[in-house]
Specification:
The complex is a heterodimer of chains A (457) and B (632).
Chain A (H helix, E strand, L loop, with lengths): L1 H19 L5 H16 L7 E3 L4 E3 L1 H20 L10 H20 L3 H19 L6 H32 L4 H10 L5 H18 L8 H8 L2 H26 L4 H25 L3 H22 L2 H32 L10 H4 L1 H15 L5 H15 L3 H25 L13 H19 L2 H4 L3
Antiparallel strand pairs in A: 1-2
Helix pairs in contact in A: 1-2, 1-4, 2-3, 3-4, 3-10, 3-13, 4-5, 4-10, 5-6, 5-10, 6-8, 6-9, 9-10, 9-12, 10-12, 10-13, 11-12, 11-17, 12-13, 12-16, 12-17, 13-15, 13-16, 13-18, 15-17, 15-18, 16-18
Chain B lengths: L6 H15 L8 H21 L10 E11 L2 E9 L1 H24 L6 H20 L3 H19 L6 H32 L4 H8 L7 H17 L8 H4 L5 H10 L4 H8 L1 H5 L2 H22 L5 H21 L3 H28 L17 H15 L5 H16 L1 H26 L7 H6 L5 H16 L14 H6 L16 H28 L13 H7 L4 H50 L4 H20 L1
Antiparallel strand pairs in B: 1-2
Classes of the chains: A mainly alpha (457), B mainly alpha (632).
């Protein structure tokens, strides 16, 4: 709760900086506020707490995800230094990012359907605006409009689903819904089934699972790279945290309704994401498809429904966001010089920019799931949890998907070490380098000592 | 002191990182100094642990740092076990390691890759310390593999010489065979006991009867690992070839520490081995065979380091015989004394090679004692110690093994005694051919002959003192009630049923000593007469060899045999597999799948046409299918 208050106050302070004219010093404010929020998150560790009539439930699960997302946001503020420097609306964008973060935090800790809906909207609306924040760029405008149109469409389903569940159980409170669904016969009848499925559709859209993923590649490509970085890490993590929280706790009693559907969607997402990524020549677009593929893997954790599922989805979220933000950080630095997003602009990077190449190498290895990176154990835990439920064919597809993944991630690694001298030296500030190196090392450390993280929940 | 235990392996690791990252920036000899200081730091902390009350024989201490792997029922923490066994190993590794580091500053002074050498050496010390400190088999295995890697890197240290690379490969591959056994042993252990933690495995093992099949299988598999690492028949041929590495490496890795890892492992698992008498019997046989077999080969070798290498094999055989008899502390005692005198001999040999500008063939040496007085003197002490002349270190530990063997079986005792005699013969042959008689090298070499600098001779002198006095750690019962070494280890060792507890009679002890002294005097006289006085130097041309000598010179043609039986057929098989299976089938399928994926990607991509209408259409179709399937 303290975290929520600090973040909200920070958002307002940033928003007002334009009016009261302290724009120049707003960045230090943001860092201080985020660090304070990060520290405040730990207050409730190991003490489960309810707030506002069980609207918000803070437990270790929500704290772990909140900490992860705030930390990623801090890194994001470090690696996006050139973010709209020449535009007047810079601080507004910063404020929107912080409001989105508030939505993300709520999405990890809701205890009520209304709160879920609010969280999704608080998270989404800033993202619609931010996707179009490069006003002079046509692609950015297109991305924002597409995102908004389809997002509105998906929100309708989410709300409809919530209404049906309310109609069946008479409550918005997750605890009461769960009890009602357990006691009612055959999981609550048609209304409950339809409700669960429609809520699922809304969330499938948010996590970009096939066939609700079509917005993702276009929006990810069209939006400014900084925003894409935020969308594919913080927003995605939050969406999954919420998805998992709702289904693995509230709807777990009526699992028979939705497990098979998620299984099929998960397999489809893995296949579509990986196969389409192979063909991409743009690094940014490749990351967009790869993020779809990763959504497929994370869906597997939701249907595992056992003791390992929670820790495996947290581990996956950490490994994935850390490596992704690193990959985007590199892309930002490189595309700043080469002015395009192609994989080819990484050619021969290792010679002139050994540090950048090293970070890229670690990020790609982690995303591909190669030991000793965290990405390996992330996949390992998820696959193990799924195997324990005997989803053998799904794991088989996931493993094949990872194999395909190796193909396009390694293309980047090969490009790094190509014997070309085309790459220029890429200037980076010390803190930028330190941030990139730090997150790569996090991915490495969790890969060598997964026990540090895996036993947390 | 216990709170500093983590620093013992971490210091050399820091040394490794520091040296390897800043190799180019480090001026002059500072890489060597950093390397030596980190090991010295570990040595000081190890000494502190040694005098800590907990290691004085009361309770072993386990320090857990954090969970390394935590998957299902498999929990592997990073935790160190500090007890008498690990304390002894720590002192050997860090103490001798430090001396050898110092020695290397002088020995490697003119090498271009001075920094690289010390970074590898520090990395080796790190892994070796992990191996002996780990409190579970997986951590031990991590160290086990790590030292194997460092051994590989250091054997092939001068990688421009292809023969050295082959030697490094051979060592690595042979160890791999052993490691597979070791790994299977660990897996079987996990399946049987549900844990790989020493304390849990050993307490669970107490409920098993003697010679239970699973226990025998586990111990045998673990021993296969030991056969690879400690170079026992049939996995021994890599060790003589490993002499391709720089001499300090031969002393540290291939004599004093790494090759004794197998013995450490068996001693550590003594509770398992004690309830598997058949495995112990097998260990005795393998150890005995290796001891006598390699001793005979050493008789005919002419490379100074090769003689020492075969002698190491033979001494390792001795140690395994002791373990096989259930005399674990005796085995570890011989590890200790052997570490002293074998490191000494190798380093002294290095000093000789250094003086001879790289020459290793003893047929081209001779008369060096006047030019290299210090080296000669310490080599003499090493020779006396290894041959078992009282009161030098080797005498007591060997005597103890012989006495235990006598209690067990007369045949074993006889074979060990013969090996002992052979050992004395080849060692004095080596000593006399190298340091006595007239100089047989080239004029140039004679001109360059010089005693090594102090940085080399001081470690030699310290090791010589240890080789002289080390034996008093374990005086036999006939002199004193207090076997220091045995008592120190006693609390953590078990006694298998096959070991007779009876102490050898005092009469037998005296007789043993008397006979060995007389026999040694005879051997020294005979070898002196033959190699020093009459200078019967082995011929440089093979044609003049007698048939038996030729067989020994060619090491019983075992390398050629392995080549014919294993290596050639394997190459043939892999060639066939490559040409038919790999290129045609595997590559074909892979390429086909790859093409399929790319083609599929092209098609799927078309759906991403950019039109919101199509996207929403796809979503709606998806929703309809979902609802229809689930509601009807």
């Amino acid at each position: 709760m303290t975290t929520l208050i600090i973040l909200s106050a920070l958002g307002l302070v940033v928003l007002f900086s334009e009016i009261f004219g302290y724009k120049k010093i707003v960045l230090p404010f943001i860092f201080a506020g985020l660090v304070a929020a990060l520290a405040a998150s730990f207050i409730d560790w190991n003490i489960g707490k309810h707030y506002l009539n069980e609207m918000m439930i803070v437990d270790n699960y929500s704290i772990a995800f909140t900490v992860l997302m705030i930390a990623i946001t801090i890194v994001w503020f470090i690696i996006s230094p050139g973010f709209f420097r020449d535009q007047g609306s810079r601080v507004d964008h910063f404020a929107l990012i912080i409001f989105a973060l508030i939505g993300a935090q709520l999405l990890t800790s809701f205890g009520n359907m209304i709160m879920l809906f609010l969280a999704v909207e608080i998270l989404s609306i800033p993202m619609y605006i931010l996707a179009g924040s490069n006003k002079s760029n046509l692609a950015s405008n297109e991305a924002a409009l597409k995102y908004f149109l389809m997002g509105a469409f998906a929100t309708g389903f989410l709300l409809f689903g919530i209404a049906l569940i309310y109609g069946q159980t008479g409550s918005f409170n997750l605890q009461q819904i769960s009890e009602a669904l357990t006691t009612q016969q055959d999981g609550g009848g048609v209304m409950a089934v339809a409700g669960v499925l429609l809520i699922m559709v809304g969330l499938f859209f948010k996590v970009s699972a096939a066939p609700f993923h079509f917005w993702a590649p276009d929006v990810y490509t069209g939006a400014p790279t900084e925003i894409t970085a935020f969308m594919s890490t913080v927003v995605k993590t939050a969406a999954f945290a919420g998805f998992f929280r709702l289904f693995a706790t509230c709807f777990s009693a009526s699992a028979s309704i939705w497990v098979n559907t998620i299984m099929v969607v998960s397999a489809l997402t893995i296949i579509v994401g990986n196969i389409t990524a192979v063909y991409q020549t743009s690094f940014k677009r490749m990351l967009a498809y790869s993020s779809i593929a990763h959504a497929g893997y994370m869906l597997m954790a939701i249907i595992s429904l056992n003791g390992y599922a929670q820790q495996s989805i947290l581990f996956y979220a950490v490994a994935y966001s850390v490596s992704s933000i690193a990959a985007f950080g590199i892309l930002l630095a490189v595309s700043h010089i080469t002015k395009n997003d192609d994989v080819a602009s990484f050619n021969g990077l290792a010679k002139k920019n050994p540090l950048l190449a090293f970070v890229t190498l670690l990020a790609m290895l982690s995303l591909a799931g190669i030991p000793p990176m965290a990405g390996f154990f992330a996949k390992y835990y998820i696959f193990t949890a799924a195997l324990q439920q005997h989803y053998t064919w799904l794991v088989l597809i996931a493993v094949l998907g990872s194999l395909i993944g190796v193909f396009y991630y390694f293309r980047v690694i090969i490009a790094l070490f190509k014997n070309e001298n085309s790459a220029a030296e890429i200037p980076m500030t010390g803190i930028y380098k330190a941030a990139l190196l730090f997150i790569s090392l996090v991915a490495l450390v969790f890969g060598i000592m997964p026990g540090l993280l895996a036993g947390l929940l | 002191m216990l709170q500093f235990a983590w620093l013992i392996p971490v210091l050399p690791l820091l040394g490794f990182l520091c040296i390897s990252f800043f190799q180019k920036q480090l001026p002059g000899k500072s890489a060597g100094i950093i390397g030596s200081l980190t090991v010295l730091g570990s040595f000081i902390i190890s000494c502190g642990l040694f005098f800590h009350p907990a290691s004085g024989g009361t309770e072993p201490v386990t320090i857990t740092y954090f969970d390394w792997i935590n998957v299902g029922s498999l929990k592997i923490p990073i935790s160190f076990l500090i007890d008498p066994i690990s304390c002894v190993m720590l002192l050997i590794i860090t103490g001798i390691g430090f001396l050898i580091h110092v020695y290397s500053i002088g020995y490697m002074a003119h090498d271009d890759a001075f920094g690289r050498f010390f970074s590898y050496l520090n990395l080796f010390i790190f892994f070796m310390l992990i191996l002996v400190l780990g409190s579970n088999y997986v951590l031990m295995f991590a160290g086990w593999e790590g030292v194997g890697l460092c051994s590989y890197l250091l054997i092939g240290f001068w990688f421009k010489n292809n023969e050295y690379n082959n030697a490094a490969n051979k060592a690595f591959i042979m160890n791999r065979i052993g490691d597979l056994g070791f790994l299977l042993g660990i897996i079987l252990m996990f399946v049987t006991f549900g844990s790989v933690q020493f304390s849990e495995v050993f307490s669970a093992a107490k409920g098993f009867p003697d010679n239970q099949t699973t226990i025998v299988a586990i111990t045998m598999l673990l021993f296969v690992g030991a056969m690879g690492k400690s170079a026992q028949i049939p996995l021994y041929t890599w060790l003589p070839d490993a002499m391709a590495g720089p001499t300090p490496v031969s002393a540290l890795i291939h004599a004093a520490t790494m090759v004794t890892a197998g013995i450490y492992m068996v001693v550590r698992s003594n509770i398992l081995y004690s309830i598997a008498p058949s495995t112990l019997e097998f260990i005795t046989i393998v150890g005995m065979a290796t001891a006598i077999f390699s001793a005979t080969i050493a008789l005919a070798q002419t490379d100074i380091k090769k003689v020492l290498a075969y002698s190491t094999l033979s001494q390792l055989g001795y140690m395994f015989v002791a373990l096989g008899l259930g005399a674990y502390s005796t085995g570890l005692f011989h590890v200790t004394t052997h570490a002293f005198f074998k490191a000494l001999l190798f380093l002294a040999a290095g000093s000789v090679i250094h003086a001879m500008s790289g020459e290793q063939d003893i047929r081209r040496m001779g008369g060096l004692r006047k030019k290299l007085p210090v080296t000669y003197f310490v080599f003499l002490i090493g020779t006396l110690a290894i041959s078992g002349v009282p009161p030098f270190a080797g005498f007591f530990s060997k005597d103890e093994i012989l006495a235990k063997a006598h209690m067990h079986s007369e045949l074993l005792f006889f074979l060990l005694s013969v090996t002992s005699v052979i050992t004395a013969v080849y060692m004095f042959r080596l000593l006399f051919l190298t340091f006595f008689g007239t100089f047989r090298g080239t004029h140039d070499q004679a001109h360059h002959l010089h005693e090594s600098p102090a940085v080399i001779t001081i470690p030699l002198i310290i090791l010589a003192i240890l080789s002289t006095l080390g034996g008093f750690l374990g005086l036999p019962a006939v002199f004193t009630e207090h076997h220091l070494f045995g008592n120190f280890l006693a609390p953590v060792l078990s006694t298998p049923a096959i070991t007779s507890l009876a102490e050898p009679s005092h009469f037998f002890e005296y007789m043993l000593m008397g006979i060995s002294v007389v026999a040694l005097a005879l051997i020294i006289y005979m070898t002196y007469d033959r190699f020093a006085k009459k200078e019967m130097v082995p011929s440089l041309s093979e044609a003049e060899f007698k048939p038996w000598y030729r067989v020994l010179y060619h090491k019983y043609y075992i390398d050629e045999l392995y080549d014919k039986v294993f290596v050639k057929p394997l190459y043939w098989l892999s060639d066939v597999c490559y040409k038919i299976f790999d290129i045609k089938i595997v590559d074909g399928v892979v390429n086909l799948v790859g093409k399929g994926v790319v083609r599929g990607s092209e098609v799927v991509r078309l759906a991403q046409a950019g039109s919101v209408g199509i996207y929403i259409f796809a979503m709606v179709i998806g929703i309809i299918i979902m609802l229809v399937v689930n509601l009807y």
